[in-house]
Design brief:
The chain is α/β, with parallel strands linked by helices. The protein is 44% helix and 17% strand. The protein is built from eleven helices and eleven strands. A hairpin with a 4-residue loop joins β1 and β2.
């Protein structure tokens, strides 16, 4: 349930198409639905613009399917991150129209495509960073952004990045996924007018400490406009980028409305 669906529901009540009991039946699971071992937050789309996302790691396959059924029951899109192949197989049996992205560890079902509200560019330092970057890319796309990808353009050969300068100039948000020392985020931020969401990955040799070196390097970047998410948190990066784009889109719409009224 999101704001647009709620408005349509109230409109049907106002027009007489639905009576009060029928509307109450539609709203019976707001603000959440208790399904035993999970309390599914159906109110989240109204609060934040996006439905609850299912974090798959640590949940049983059956728990994941039940939560997905609850979200889908509200005619909402659903997204499962850190989804194991066994859970994906169960989800495919239940939701044949769903999409399984094994490289990103994501299963999702897009019931209602969202209006595209911004342009997000995903950049990786290396090929090994792609799975985490794909988690960010799919998240941002499902949350309503146009997404492009530029992979394997790290600082060991920074001339590769410069070949895509025009795409960086066009982006509303740039997500930079990098392991090792994480320097690529600073390089991109130095040539980008858009906010940069730095996504450290757990790629690297021993002294990278499973992504900690990249995380600290990104957090101490001397380039302006760099925001950092947690190690391997592709979902968090994609969500942050989508929120920035959505707010910018809303602001532009309000400004247009103000000019039209003036």
């Amino acid at each position: 349930m999101d704001e647009s669906k709620l408005r349509k529901l109230l409109g049907r009540l106002k027009s007489g198409e639905l009576n009060e009991d029928e509307v109450l039946k539609e709203l019976r699971f707001l603000p959440f639905e208790d399904i035993g071992d999970a309390k599914v937050d159906h109110h989240r789309a109204i609060r934040t613009g996006f439905p609850e996302v299912i974090y798959g790691k640590g949940k049983t396959d059956e728990q994941i399917v039940r939560i997905a059924e609850s979200i889908h029951g509200q005619n909402d899109n659903f997204l499962v991150t850190r989804c194991a192949p066994s859970a994906a197989e169960k989800l495919r049996q239940r939701f044949s129209e769903g999409n399984w992205e094994p490289n990103a560890g994501i299963f999702y079902l897009e019931t209602v495509p969202r209006e595209k509200q911004g342009y997000v560019l995903i950049v990786t330092a290396g090929t090994t960073d792609i799975p985490v970057a794909e988690e960010a890319a799919i998240t941002a796309s499902l949350f309503g952004c146009q997404v492009d990808r530029v992979y394997d353009v790290g600082v060991a050969g920074v001339h590769r990045l410069m070949a895509y300068r025009s795409m960086i100039d066009e982006a509303d948000v740039v997500i930079v996924a990098a392991g090792m020392e994480g320097a690529l985020a600073s390089v991109v931020a130095s040539v980008s007018k858009a906010p940069v969401v730095a996504l450290p990955t757990s790629v690297g040799y021993g002294a990278s400490f499973g992504g900690l070196a990249a995380l600290l390097g990104m957090m101490t970047s001397c380039a302006a406009g760099v925001t950092v998410v947690n190690i391997d948190n592709g979902f968090g990066a994609g969500c942050a980028a989508a929120l920035i784009c959505a707010r910018a889109h809303d602001l532009a719409a309000r400004m247009r409305d103000g000019k039209n009224k003036g």
